[in-house]
Amino acid sequence: MKIHVKVPATTANLGPGFDALGLTLNLWNEAEFQCTDDSDQIAVSVQGEGIEKLPQNEENAIAQAALMIYDLAGKSCPGLRIECLNRIPLGSGMGSSSAAMLTGMLGANGLLGNPFTDEEILKLAIETEGHPDNVAPAMLGGLVASIVHNERVFSMRLPTKANHGPIHATVVLPDFEFPTQTARALLPKTVERSEAIFNLSRVVLVTEALRTGNMELLGIAMKDSLHQPYRLPLIPGAIDALKAGKDAGASAVALSGAGPSLIAFSPKEDPVIGAAMEAAFATADLDVRIFELGTSYEGAEVTIVG
Ligand code: HSE
Counting beta carbons within 10 angstroms of the beta carbon of residue 73, is it exposed (0 to 12), middle (13 to 18) or buried (19 or more)? Predict the structure, then answer.
């Protein structure tokens, strides 16, 4: 039996929804899981993103997540072959580590005949990965809000207005290392009440703009005072690229997750937006990769392929 797993990219924060909101993007990692007779041998093959960096053995994050599920299920892992096709760039702010965590957990759960429910997998993945704002939309699909209450995570899909058509996202990824840990360490531990109010008031309107498809409202509301002011200045060219995207016609531009990529939302694809942002990063001597993506209302998918 083989298990095929598809997990999407996600963009967290959406400006003011720091650590709370995330949205699924139409860019998918895929992996195929199969038990083998080589007991205890974990063979991982990687194609696509991260091919030069990712370990192709049991040190691989997908293999580690799979082994955790075997362990929690009280089963010993037979030999395992995992073939990965990665499309989500690593360390980009598009949820690659959450995708890896979910991929491994869902693949192993599938091979074991689903001892854990989807809800349990989601909880485990959030506890292990630590970022509900990427993990939850990757699992559930669409726009997802998460809270932590008494050490429990509650994640809920919020409505987005399908008949406005999916909103287009231009993700511009500069060639710049900006690990999430570094990006979090920069943030102050306390904030002014005015800054909290700035974000609280706007995040509600971001969800409303996405529900109604009101792109003008999205542009007004997608601003942040809790994380972007500390992060953007450290990514060369990012402040200018954010402005350039808006000047070129994007409805709203924000840091995608903790960065370094920026995400520009527009009613439809328009290459002018990515080109303008690329030019701004070029003045800071950074090359970029541009991803023209739809948003997705589907989350992770597991199928038995024979
Ligand atoms: N919300 C997190 C942050 C990113 O901005 O640090 C989750 O990937």
Answer: middle
Contact (CB, 8 A) for 262 and 223: no
Which are the contacts of 270, defined by CB distance < 8 A and separation ≥ 6? 168, 170, 248, 249, 250
Give the position, in ligand 1's atom list, of the atom nearest the Cα of 227: 5
Task: Give residue 258 CA to ligand 1 midpoint distance, Å.
Answer: 5
Which helix (DSSP H) or strand (DSSP E) does residue 27 occupy? Answer: strand 21-36
Interatomic CA distance for residues 94 and 261, integer angstroms: 8
Q: Is any atom of ligand 1 closer than 6 Å to the C-beta of 58?
A: no
The set of residues, in sequence order, having a beta carbon less than 8 Å from that of 150 and lying 6+ positions away, is none
Q: Does the C-beta of 160 come closer than 6 Å to ligand 1?
A: no
pLDDT tens column, 86-133:
999 999 999 999 999 999 999 999 999 999 999 999 999 998 988 899
Q: Can you tell me whether residue 267 is helix, strand or coil?
A: coil
Burial (CB count within 10 angstroms: exposed 0-12, middle 13-18, buried 19+), residue 108 = buried
Residues 6+ away with beta carbon under 8 Å from 124: 68, 69, 72, 105, 116
How many angstroms separate the alpha carbon of residue 289 from the centre of ligand 1?
Answer: 21
Q: How far apart are CA 19 and CA 64, in angstroms?
A: 25
Q: Could you tell me the pTM of the whole model?
A: 0.95
CA 169 to CA 185: how far, in whole Å? 28
